Amino acid sequence: MKKIYLLVTALLAVTFSQAQDITDAVRYSDDGLSGTARFRAMSGAFGALGGDLSAINVNPAGSAVFLNSYSTVTFNYNMRKNETQYYNGLTMNENSNVNFDQAGAVMVFNNTDPEHDWNRLSVGINYAQISNFDDNFTAQGTSPNSIDQYFLGYANGVPLDLLETMDNETVTDLYRFLGENEGFGAQQAFLGYQGFVINPDSPELDNTSYSSAIGAGTFNQQFDYAATGLNGKFTLNLASAYKDVFYIGANLNAHFLNFDRATRLVENNTNPGSETNRVYFLNNLSTLGNGFSAQVGAIVKAGEVLRLGASYESPTWFSINERTTQRLDTYSEEFNEDIAVNPNVVNIYPDYTLQTPGKITGSAALVLGDMALISFDYSYKDYSSIEFKPSGDPDFMIQNNLISENLRAASTYKVGGEYRVGGLSLRGGYRIEESPYKNELTIGELTGYSAGLGFDFGSVKLDLAYENSTRTDNPQLYQVGFVDTAEIDRDFSSLILSLSFGI
Prior knowledge:
This protein is mainly beta and about 500 residues long. It has helices spanning about 1-10, 20-30, 35-40, 150-155, 170-180, 185-195, 395-405, and strands at about 70-85, 90-110, 120-130, 135-145, 200, 210, 220-240, 245-270, 280-300, 305-315, 315-330, 335-340, 345-350, 350-355, 360-370, 370-380, 385-390, 410-420, 425-435, 445-455, 460-475, 485-500.
């Protein structure tokens, strides 16, 4: 009965301090390469081409290039490999999954009046999985730094009076109280104190300084990270063609995201003077969000061969809700004692707004009749313009300052080509995405290549693609105090299958 009571009260817990940080901002602002097999086989270089359901996500004018109504559905098989270096340890993680990546249709209304210069109107609807958050890695090695620095980073400045339970007050009661009244940082200090990771420098209740209960030396650590989720987008598109020379279009986009992350740190030490020799620290995060954005774009035929395109995508305004849970277990050889600090509390944070950066794309393509084409896209996105709102909130002011200090504008370059032989199309592409970080290390530059085949059976088309991308990241394991980084060489591959139907 007691466990049921704790669960019920946990679901009612609300905390008013923000736990969001710069890593969340970058994650939800990123848009990976996703969409139809033809689109991905050419690395997404479609801004001046159109004529593909996924091309309208780059340039809304692209739907007006269709001559007839068209629909496409896409599935993919993703393979991810992470090789993680953490001090003297090297680990490998692999995972794979099947995804429903895209589905959409365009209805084309041709104007039969030869006197009318606006000769075509297109109305499209499309679903696209913008980003896939599935990821896992293990960082394992011997570090000179301990997780104690994380708890000290939050504890110093917090009165000891807030960390001591009163008569008839449980760990759950106090942890929930701190979240509701003092915030996330006070909860972390409480965990560290109750778990005997940190000690007060004075027994007085007004003490605000703390020291580690773990002796200096080396620490055998294993940090496990596992995440699932996606960022998806529903698009309503409207476009028109002027004399089949100039195309213009607009999108209204409804976004949704879900993200679940679990991290676990296990630390062991035999250092002299350590009152605590093992630390087990578990954190879970669950995120749900929805938002909206808009796009406008144009394509022009600048001659028989040359096509030019330009588009603008507004910032996305997300409304995001987050929940977290935590647990800390420790062990002391000196006292032969296990300590479990398990609050059984779900921290439910107030909804907040995240404004992601807008994007500008310029495109050019050479179209050699029905035989071949080559296309190039350049995109510019200023990640330093990301903003947590309300911007006047003190916690958000800190995060927004970190964003402006650490992030920068990043460019993306894509090139793709296609060669047709009868009903067979051969495709390939290459792309480079610059790091959004000024240090170019936290998230490294991404490079990727792709290839694919297309089979035209008349009213039905079958497209296949293979895409691979690599980058090296150096994420911090924690954002406060214990800021050791792990070097992760990431390799991501995908097999894509699309079926298209023309009318």
